[in-house]
Amino acid sequence: xxxxxxxxxxxxxxxxxxxxxxxxxxxxxxxxxxxxxxxxxxxxxxxxxxxxxxxxxxxxxxxxxxxxxxxxxxxxxxxxxxxxxxxxxxxxxxxxxxxxxxxxxxxxxxxxxxxxxxxxxxxxxxxxxxxxxxxxxxxxxxxxxxxxxxxxxxxxxxxxxxxxxxxxxxxxxxxxxxxxxxxxxxxxxxxxxxxxxxxxxxxxxxxxxxxxxxxxxxxxxxxxxxxxxxxxxxxxxxxxxxxxxxxxxxxxxxxxxxxxxxxxxxxxxxxxxxxxxxxxxxxx
Length: 284
Ligand SMILES: [Zn+2]
Known about the structure:
By secondary structure, the protein is of the alpha/beta class. It contains 7 helices and 9 strands; from the N terminus they run H-E-H-E-H-E-H-E-H-E-E-H-E-E-E-H.
């Protein structure tokens, strides 16, 4: 069984080697669901993790996270909601770019893909990229590395259109090519679950390196609660999902970076990972 699993892992790795972009140049169908096909397998078992932060910018917490990243010289990708960018939060956006971080789109607002018609979805996501291009320009940067993350990881949930095909159309309309990489995650820190402490959130990153008790969540009634489960086969590498709007994530980010740097783990920016490398020259 163990040999079979190792072979399966190696075959999967092989299938993905040479992968130079998501989405692929093909039509996506309803079979294309879930996060599994889009995980950063090239860095599994390598002790390499890439930090990503969703749902900001937040006027104070994002700034605190930027302070932590600067202190330890780690670069991240921020998936922002463009409705949160305005004259008062723009300095945070400029600072992200000045300090070498990437900015991706998480939409204008935090829409669930399943709730929107194709034209509604396209208008909104397209708008978010147009706005990001404008903010980049205002900060003095060309917008050349384009990433999108589906809120709730919700895509491929409509019978009348597939969000990934729509994303490719948006990219072609804006830049003439399939340039927008979609990025999921390998490590869900559950930092948004009520009652999570910084130590809990840091723990959830650490156990994905060395195994242990992962503080997962489950739905009880209308709310989510902590639901610890043993994680026996940690990926020991992957893209980490955090939220820069969550208070515990500030200290958790510092705790995990300290853990990683003490063990010489690698914390590259996502575009240094094979699956998320930028191979085309696109500008918006
Ligand atoms: Zn989100």
